[in-house]
Amino acid sequence: MAAEHGASLADPITAPAWTTAAAHTAQARKSTGVAQTRPGHGGRAWLTVTIVLTAGSAIAAIALAPGAGAPAPEGLAFLLFVGSSVHVASTGWFYTVPQVRAHMRQRKVRYYWWPLALLAGAGAIAVLLPRPVLYWLLLPYFGWQFFHYQKQNLGIVALTAAACHVPALRRPERQALIAAGLSGIAALVARPGLLQLPVRPVLSAVFPLAVAAFCGSVAVGASCLVVRSRTRPSAGFSAAYLTSLAFSLPIFVFSSPYAAVAGLTIAHGLQYLLLMGMLAAGGEPRTRMISLAALVNIALLGGAALALASDQLTAKPAVRILYGLFLGAVMAHFVVDAGLWRMREPFPRTFLGARLPWLVTAAVRP
User: What values do phi and psi take at 180, rounded to 5?
Assistant: First the structure.
């Protein structure tokens, strides 16, 4: 998977900002005595599709994983393309929305200057540094990426709590989810071969500790879920929480890089694309088809360009600049998303709440 490294691990730089709004929504429903624990039709459909995509991605990656040293088969390569490069490129859709562009013009540093600086900086690093050094730099980069995979899972669980009208995540429940994700990262650092990085595994002794930490995190999370279920049972919330809690499990079970991590990459990207598709479809009816068409074209065309650039890690320095530009684009995606999904700010609350009122209920509150 060396060719997909950058594309495989693309995600927002901060905890998904919808966590805050979803938590407020669930807490508000708790305080008003709402007893319903099943989501509405829109929330139920989103939750069902999200869980199916997450579990199905892991199953597909395991089933399609090639033997040692073999390239990914076409089916798995396509899923990785969609779940990695396409999902990163889809962030460009925000620049087509007039309200979002107006908001961006008020914050040019985040939405214009930082992306340009990241592109230039990453391109220069890819050209100037020898490839062995780049391999070592990619190891912490990928650890950072997988941490944000789990942050997105945390946000999805928080949204699920709001959609299912159950209390917001408690601190132990959150901590168990984050600890499970960190355990998976530690396992990847101990076994960089799972990322197909040709570096010496200097921390291989960490792997048993990572296994123990993951098992402990799952045990704590499961016990928290049992306690919650005694008072406010919700099958939808339980499914979302357990899926997120066990998200890193393939890392510990499989020695094949594709079986271990490709499913996580695909699942993460598809979760994001689902939310982006709902946002694009949530605008005014007269512009809905145009918005969806813009999203599809930007995601596919931009994804194709990113996928091509992500294959240049092993190229000569003059060409390897494309790989650096790819990494810069991924990091720009982090920065843009960190602002546009930040529910503590007025614009994201208003914009997302208007387009997804049945999911981001708290977003429309003053």
Answer: -65, -40
* Nearest by Cα to 149 from 1, 297, 263: 263
What are 34-90's pLDDT values in tens digits?
Answer: 344 555 677 788 999 999 999 999 999 999 999 877 888 999 999 999 999 999 999
- Backbone φ and ψ for 262, nearest 5 degrees, come out as -60, -40
User: What does the domain layout of the chain look like in residue ranges?
Assistant: 2-32+52-163+263-364
- Measure the CA–CA gap between 21 and 342, rounded to whole angstroms: 9
Q: How far apart are alpha carbons 83 and 103 in whole angstroms?
A: 28
Task: Please report, for residues 38, 189, 215, the alpha-carbon distance to residue 184 in angstroms, rounded to integers and kept in the order given.
Answer: 31, 9, 11
User: For 202, left (φ over 0), alpha (ψ -120 to 50), or beta?
Assistant: alpha
End-to-end CA distance of the chain: 46
363/19 Cα distance (integer angstroms): 11
Query: d(Cα 340, Cα 68) in Å, to the nearest integer?
Result: 41
The structure's pTM equals: 0.85
Best CA proximity match to 1, nearest among 269, 263, 207: 263
